[in-house]
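SAMPLE LOG
Freezer: B-3
Tube label: C17
Construct: single chain, 183 aa
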Amino acid sequence: MELRRVVDEAGSGSAVAFQQLFESYAGDVGRYVNAITRRPDLAEDLVAETFLRVWKQLPSLRESERFEAWLFRIAHHVAVDAVRARRPSESDDLLIALEQETFRTPVEWAEARADRAFLQAALEGLSEEHREVITLRFLLELSSKEVAAQMGRSDDAIRQLQHRALAQLRSLITHAAYDSEAA
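STRUCTURE (predicted):
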């Protein structure tokens, strides 16, 4: 599928072309919104909301070659809106990628759960921008170029942002570990 042609056809109202876009990107969008919200139970609804917005706004997309960055920007807004709407009393599932692990003993399970909680707390200490770059680079395994397109920045700016985010995360983890040893 030539992306530009399919995007242009979908923007002109072709349901078949739009279906191709949906089938090509729904999985990635689902993983992305899931990584932001940490709510697998919402992922399907958020993917549907994202593609509904895409369908409505696609005719106004001027540069079809920037479709992927545009799509993920919409997905980002949908996911952030869902996080903001969520009541703080709801419990979060911790990092989905780590949640899939299997353990041989209950002790291993408990240790992994504690590690996830520790890491999740450290990630929540990051700014939204730092958390986003860490999520895109390491949970979704996007290249720095893909992250740059997603976040609307240069590749160099993303590398610098990633460096600062990792330094801040390292500092948060170090301080938390030191604090827990001192207690």
